[in-house]
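Before the break, one more example. Copy the sequence into your notebook; we will annotate it together after we see the structure.
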Amino acid sequence: MTATANPSPGYARNPGKVITLEPVTGTVTVRAGGTVIARSTRAMKLSEPPYPPVLYIPFDDVLFEHLERTAHSTHCPYKGDASYWTVLAIGETGENAMWAYEAPFDEMLAIKDHAAFYPDRVTVETVPG
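Here is what the structure looks like once it is written out:
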């Protein structure tokens, strides 16, 4: 069975757009209050100027028992539709604090099943390895 093509309409309109992914060296830990929400040695840094870089952590390294999926979603013409989760440990501040592209466009398949967090809602720490 072959996968259905899912090309990015953003890249079709703007082929010069540059989004890069690179591995993060070391351990990335995400905390909400005193609770560890995620910890990974396999995180990736996505750079999409003019936006600040975003760290993406594999779902396998996220502690989903501290999260609750919400109905919120957003759309990026380069990455696809983002789903959101609330970080339960921090109450209202944690609402929609984590997002992921569960079915990204073809050009961004590397972030499938990876989560990102808003750094102004949780603490994201990288310890070099």
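The domain at 18-127 is CATH 2.170.150.40 (Metal Binding Protein, Guanine Nucleotide Exchange Factor; Chain A). The two ends are 40 Å apart (CA to CA). Try to locate both features in your own notes.
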